Amino acid sequence: MLSELSTIGQWYQNEPAEGWHFDEVTFDDEAKIAFEKLDLNIKIFEHSARVDIRNNHTYMPGHYFLYALKVQPLVTLLHKYMEMFDSLKSHITNSENLAILVRSLSPSHPITDALDEYSKTNFYQAFSDREKRLRGKDIINGSGASTSLRSGDDFICSVILKALPVPDVSSDMLGQLIYSFSQCPEALQVLKKKYYPSIPYLFKCSSGDELMFRILSVLGWEGKLDPLFDNVDSSVGNLDWAETSGAFKLSRTKIPGNISYFDEPVHYSPSSGKYVHIRKGLLNNSAGIQQVNDALSNLWPELTISEENSEFLFKSSVRQKHSAPPKTGGCNRIIYGAPGTGKSHSIEQSTGEEFIVRTVFHPETQYSDFVGCLKPVMEGDRVAYRFRPGAFTKALVKAIKDPSNIYRLVIEEINRAPAAAVFGEIFQLLDRKPDGSSCYQIDISDPDLLTYLNAQTGGRFLAGKLFIPSNLSLVATMNSSDQAVMPLDTAFKRRWSFEYVELSFAKAPNQVLELQTSEGLFSITWADFAEKVLNNMLKEFRVPEDRMIGPFFLNETELQDWQSALRGKLFVYLWDDVLRHKTQDRARLFSAKFGTFGELYNSFPKEPVFGLEADSLIREFGTAVENLDG
């Protein structure tokens, strides 16, 4: 279907200034190879291009290429107009007769009569009325014997340039560049794949219905809607679209005849002989937007619909929200303290789970685990290799794709691996600017990592430089009692801030324990037992604070079976880790009659297992449990 050319041109003429604020772009090897196939004598550089024109030349900035991407829908429609005009011209070889037909008040020819009435009207108006083609150049000049025809590419370029907010003095080469992309599908595909994230959006509308009209009109011009309506029974009035019920109305007239559908048709289906109208209100809620995005994913995979500040945008899914600056404040922080003080829990409390990527270091953790590497996968009957991202790369991609939120890469037990070796060259990125982004960038030496990052972020790493964005924080936890496991070197520690989590039982689980003592069964809360019995005695034993018992050393789930938790986790930690080399102190905490941990394990909870001092403290801070006879 030939949509009204002037209406489509106004999409661009009425575009606010922010819609033309393009990002700086870099051309990688793939882009250079593809763009040098354009029908121009062109040489592509990293950020610009040189075009030779006869004995002269001109240099074009990389932003010119983004104009070609932004107005590509208009160019697609113009080509459909020119295809019809060229078909008409091939049957009317005399220019004077062609001019008479086009300028006629009631034009008729078998070629155009085969069009639907709406398309036919728009076709003749576009070539006979300058206002209907944005005041672009006439394709037919003169009259009578002096009638001549302008070239199709010159006509298309003139209309394109009338739609763009650029001065005429700099527009001619821009028009040729935009037109040349429409003549080279391979170059256009690379432009779409790599550079959609560099324009703020393709379309922005205050009405979701208007946005749907634009998107589906473009898909119709490109022939991508035809499969949806092929082989549809001509009696069908409404048609579903994926999960969206009654999304389309098919009508034999360009007026839908139903106020629930958009007035202007988005497509004409030759197989059914009907116009296609889109139902209003498809984007009225988040569920509707998601359904439409799912349906569009195969038709226009590079772009997605979103609602921002009561406006609807069609833009790259990896494009940051144009309406808000990126978040800042990324940092490197190590949280340390005694086991069970709630270090990991405190991170989740300050950040939504969806904004956290978590990993755990262990002695075998390597750089390839943290950053990523090629790994074998089965593709049918053969083995292939694909890049599998590590935790750092996953967090980096999420932060780049959503700069309006702060993301945290949480590294549990950072000192259980050789941290400097695991970080490798990323070590250099840990120096931060005041906004939280990396002070320095490093070359990405792994080509597979570079390819993966560009594919996931829409080309944000085309320059081959790796950096940490301002909205990505690295937060690590460390049991300070384990500092000797894998010591952190001074240079590494200098790039982190440290936060100590003190022992506090204010929010400890309130589970009640019933322990055998020398004077019978006593009940005591977990908090009192850990703080007032165990930790008080460990202080007296001169045990460092970071080896004492935290309030969440045993969590609520473990404490539901507190007898097993005490003997299977708490007692073994005290016996083997804290008091391994303090046998005299161990005999004060636990009964001196136990020579091995096995004896202690098997005796609890049937009989008293604590030494005299611990036994006394349990009775002091606990409550005697009455037996059956009181």
Automatic annotation (TrEMBL):
Residues forming the ATPase dynein-related AAA domain are 334-495
PANTHER family per the record?
5-METHYLCYTOSINE-SPECIFIC RESTRICTION ENZYME B (PTHR37291), TYPE IV METHYL-DIRECTED RESTRICTION ENZYME ECOKMCRB SUBUNIT (PTHR37291:SF1)
Q: What organism does this protein naturally occur in?
A: Celerinatantimonas yamalensis
The protein's name: AAA family ATPase
Q: What is the lineage of its organism?
A: Bacteria, Pseudomonadati, Pseudomonadota, Gammaproteobacteria, Celerinatantimonadaceae
